[in-house]
Amino acid sequence: MKTFRIGVGFLLCGCVIALANLAFATEPANDPALTEPPLSDLDRNYWAYQPVVRPAVPEIAGDTWSRTPIDRFLLAKLHEQKLQPVEPAARLTLLRRVTFGLTGLPPTPAEQRAAEEASDFDAAYTEIVDRLLTSPAHGEHWAQSWLDLARFAETDGFEHDLVRPEAWRYRDWVINAFNSNLPFDQFVKLQLAADEQMEASDPHRIATGYLLAGPDMPDLNSQEERRHIFWNGMASNVGSVFLGLHFECAECHHHKVDPISHHDFYRLRAFFETIDLFPGKPKSEANDPDDKSSDAPKRKLPVERVVWNKTDDTPTSHLWLRGDFRRPGPEVTAQFPRALVHQESLPSFPAAHGRRTALAEWLTHRNHPLTARVMVNRVWQQHFGVGLKSTSSDFGWQGADVSHPELLDWLAAEFMESGWNLRELHRLIVASAVYRLASYPVPAEDGSISAEQQQRWHTLTTSDRTNQWLGRFSRQRLSGEAIRDAILAVSGELNRKSGGPGVLPPLPPDVASTLLKGQWPVTKEAGEHTRRSIYLFARRNLRLPLLEAYDKPDTNLSCSRRNQSTIAPQALHLLNSEFVRTTARNFAQRVTEAELSTDARVQEAYRLALGRPPSPPESAAAESLLMSQDDAPSGWHNLCHALLNLNEFLYVD
Amino acid sequence: MFCSADRASTNSSRRHFLTQCGGGFGALACAGLLAAEGQSSGSLPRSHVAPRAKQVIYLFMHGGPSHVDLFDPKPTLEQYAGKPLPESFGPVMTRRKVATNPLLGPIKPFRKHGESGIEVSDFLPHIASQVDDLCILRSCHGDSVNHPQSVYQMNTGSILTGRPSLGSWVAYGLGSENRNLPAFVVMLDQGAGIKGGPPAWGSGYLPATYQGTTVRSGATPILHLDRPADVTEHRQRELLDFINQRNREHLALRGGDDSHLAARIEAYELAFRMQTEAPAVMDITQETAATRALYGLDEKETSEFGTRCVLARRMVERGVRFVQLYSGDTVGWDAHENVLTNHTRLCKATDKPVAGLLADLKQRGLLDDTLVIWGGEFGRMPMSEQGKGRDHNPWGYTVWMAGGGVKPGMVYGATDEVGLRAVEKPVHIHDLHATILHLLGFDHTQLTFFHNGREQRLTEVDGHVVTEILA
Q1: Residue B415: closest CA among chain A residues belongs to which residue?
Q2: For chain A, what percent of residues have pLDDT higher than 70?
Q3: Interface ipTM above 0.85
């Protein structure tokens, strides 16, 4: 891997961009990186590179369990494994699951009572799902997983971590896209090429903020290197987010396993090299022929974070040897990855304007093998915790096997043929019998569990520990954002205002001191501090400690699925932080406001925090805790604080 | 191997439990479970080679100390002071376009010290007195002339942000010897944050449990360690008992077979114990007058860094794996204007505490298995800037190590005649990292974590162990 360099020791590259300051030795002509390995039949025939063909839905004799075609695919697999699905979840369990699942918020006591009292729960459930899917909270919740993928933050990162004043508009655009049920093919096209398709004044141009969402080093000595790194990040991200393939590896060499060559990477990047990246001035001034200041490191005025194409000649693109910006290899032209193109003659693309549109059109074509598969799998993962393909950004050879390949293809076909309708996809999934399964044995009215029920659970949990066949529902921990939002919702403080610039709530001084001075000017209006987590200012170099402790990912890398760690500092946050202690007091005040009996108040507290009334022993335990404390207010304060610390509060069954 | 009271008191069932579990600070989810459920987790690594060090104290001189003024004597530089860099050196990439500025001679004289006779500048008389314990690498080099990129590279191997830091890799590889304390502790200068900020001690794609925990000297060393003001210890215990009881019922109803739920129950007990243990570590009132004097705790200029050095020793005594101390606030050792004033202040603040730390570790028998590392994100240019200052130099600079299996009283590698570039036995940051991991018992090519389709590692696709410095 090392190449000798004149005068100094070694060239230290691989995937690191070496920045040493002496000239390099002439590149050997036989560098293996320059020879593009041919595609094998094995590569061409890989299942994920074939267009989606809608599979037939399995016919299962005597099936009374299935509610949707999804269930018949699932049940067929369970039967192959000689397994049976468990019983459905209780009403309130399902209500809490679907409410958090679609909106990231807990169900209210009134919603719980309505569900309990519904004479036709199936009809009521359909209405609940409609209500949730059309609630503004839906987009606010689902946007975060997209922002995780896009590496969204409102600052550059690195030393100065400068604020991007208009970046929040892209966050709002994503929220609105989900809330208005923008067809996913449009969602893709606008993010990749809205500027080529829309008038300059069209608000959808904000979508191209996606391309600019990643980290940036504006003060790097070499603006050439800065662009190189940024473009590489852009191409890698498009590769992993839309294609579900790890292009990143091919920045520096041919992918070791997947048929993605070093050339493929830079051909994909070439689609984006038409972009006028980091111009010194806003577009209105950029056409000035005398303006040679395009290398100016910082923009003086806040400008919209949108992209536009260069107006000069066709940009030439190169392969960059070993990913090094000072080592241009052969010229390349924009082209789709070879393994995904099945025609003999390759398409050619516009000189500049329209190139990204062509890429977006290709990605959203009915015959594209990956876009729909990758997206339906992401949606499935959000609902079930794990995708049908558990490596949701790696559909290549190294990714995990798909547990239900026919179901994945059926969902992908259904998704595309519905007009890329995400809302219908959610509706279809949450309506399924498999989504409605219990996550633990549900006792009968008298508290008993039948022998048959016990046997079924035992068989399932022992023969399918990881629950890949989905005979039961997998318990999931809430995300950090959902935990914070739920704490605020339970205490009645959640400010439901939507949109606008990021909010900066107070930070503990110990945390603020790790930043440069002036990097966290707390938002003046305290009422703003209790807005949903999606609206908190996303500083790349600092995540809010509570969210970070609960695995909010670093925005420097695309995150397709969050970790779920269990660490003691999480407990310290919920036990000792001023934020939780204060909200617990407000929660207690909310519960004790109404003139109710102690028992009724305990009921209300349980419903607010856990989405269900307490059992009689739980009520008794709560009342005994209340009695043991110094006075009534501190008793309620401590009880409410305890409820916010329960496993049941953090996990959704 | 040493044994402290804390380790001895660990009961066997707890130890058994912890050996079943992966991770650092308060991590409780079982490793097998993580491997089964985490998209990007791997099985926990084990030692690959015989470890020479068990813990690390990393003294990070933030901003970039001047090697040519501290550990890398350059008589030629003195001779050519005031003249431009000879053309034979070729073009030089610099941060602030200082390539054609006149050369600036060493600010203070160098003298030979100890039996090894290694030369150290008069800036650092106390560290000079310990020179026979140092292994000085004069040929280190990195890839960026910028601060944050270099801070990231020195910490994570990559000039890009978002990769796991060295401390996180060590915590991931070795876990913690004391679950009541973090495995990877970062103590910042009290002034302000470093250039590049928290990602420098982040865990990147490794689980959050391996990230550096920022610890401050004083009564509340860890975020949210203190109970709320209106909750007594007794009341909190009641609260915890209530929480535990409900959590146990919740777990039992769910068949008792969910290690995440069980781990979270354990996490609350751990959090409660930490509230006692962590402040005890920070309580330095028990240190003797001799120790206080050794670290300079009673002198105005040295007490702040000295206190952190004492704390570093107390932490490694209690099983913390990796303690990183940053000297220098946001500007730190970044002596663009005037090396003399900048380095006089920072050398004064750190020289005695660092020497005291080395002496103290040695007298307690801790130096053998504690690796001490001293260095910045880069060194400084031989050319002058603004007359008496120096610009960043990632092309050649000094890092020294002591204890933990490195040869004492040794100089390794060399920069060119003026200290511009590493020319003899160059040690890239990847090589430095490979060597540090080797000393801790890891083959750097084997300490990996599967993420984004490949086995990722600290040294990326490079790195060679500098075997000549191994004791």
Answers
A1: A8
A2: 91
A3: yes
Q: Residue B434: what are its φ and ψ, rounded to 5°?
A: -60, -40
Question: Nearest to residue B165, comparing CAs of B321, B346, B369?
Answer: B321
Report the share of chain B in percent with pLDDT over 70.
89
Judged by CB atoms closer than 8 Å, whether chains meet at A568 and B267 is answered as yes
Mind telling me how many Å the CA of A553 is from chain B's nearest CA?
A: 8
Closest CA to B276 of B187, B181, B186: B181
Q: Looking at chain B, which residue has its C-alpha nearest residue A6?
A: B423
Contacts of A477 in chain B (CB under 8 A): 260
Q: Which class for A36: exposed (0-12), middle (13-18), buried (19 or more C-beta within 10 A)?
A: middle
In chain A, residues with a C-beta closer than 8 Å to the C-beta of B421 are 7-8
Residue, of B25 and B318, whose pLDDT is higher: B318
- Would you call B93 and A21 a contact, using CB atoms and an 8 Å cutoff? yes
The Cα diameter of chain A in Å comes to 85
Task: Sort out which chain A residues have CB atoms less than 8 A from B202's CB and list them.
Answer: 554
- Range with lowest mean pLDDT among A135-139, A422-426, A461-465, B119-123: A461-465
Q: How many whole angstroms separate alpha carbon B395 and alpha carbon A362? A: 46
Closest by alpha carbon to A470, among A158, A76, A52, A28? A76
Q: The pTM is what? A: 0.82
Instruction: Count Cβ–Cβ pairs < 8 Å, chain A vs chain B.
Output: 299
A312: pLDDT strictly greater than 80: no
Q: How far apart are CA A237 and CA A239, in angstroms?
A: 5
Residue whose structure tokens are 């990912």: A553
Selecting from B37, B157, B208 the residue whose C-beta is nearest the C-beta of A551 gives: B208
Report chain A's terminal Cα–Cα distance, integer Å.
Answer: 50
Dist CA B104 CA B88 (whole Å): 18
The residue whose two tokens read 């006075």 is: A631
- The terminus-to-terminus CA distance of chain B in angstroms comes to 17
The SS3 of residue B85 is coil
Three-state SS string over A452-517 comes to: HHHHHHHHHHHHCCCCCCCCCCCCEECCHHHHHHHHHHHHCCCECCCCCCCECCCCCHHHHCCCCC
Q: Which residues are CB-contacts of A62 (< 8 A; sequence separation ≥ 6)?
A: none
pLDDT value for A352: 81
Q: Do A196 and A271 form a contact (C-beta atoms < 8 A)? A: no
Which among A586, A580, A614 is positioned nearest to A600, based on CA atoms? A614
Contact B239 A475 (CB under 8 A): no
In B, which residues are within 8 Å of A16 by CB distance?
Answer: 143, 153, 157-159, 430, 460, 462
Nearest CA in chain B to A161: B196
B252 Cβ neighbours under 8 A, 6+ residues apart = none
Coil, strand or helix: which one is B187?
strand
In whole angstroms, what is the distance from residue A293 CA to residue A279 CA?
8
CB atoms near residue A366 (< 10 Å): 11
Q: Shortest Cα distance from A124 to chain B (angstroms)?
A: 27
Structure token digits, residue A108: 């209210």
Please report residues of A whose CB lies closer than 8 A to that of B257: 461
Q: Which of A15, A256, A515 sits opposite B193 (nearest CB)?
A: A515
Q: A166-220 pLDDT, tens per residue?
A: 999 999 999 999 999 999 999 999 999 999 999 888 999 999 999 999 999 988 8
Which 8-state DSSP code applies to residue B213?
Answer: E
What's the pLDDT at A397?
85
- Contact status, residue B449 vs residue B40, Cβ threshold 8 Å: yes
Residue B256 DSSP label? T
**DSSP β-ladder status, B370-375 and B322-327:** unpaired
Nearest to A351 by CA among A393, A309, A386: A309
Mutation for B interface: A4, A557, A567, A578, most B CBs within 10 A? A567
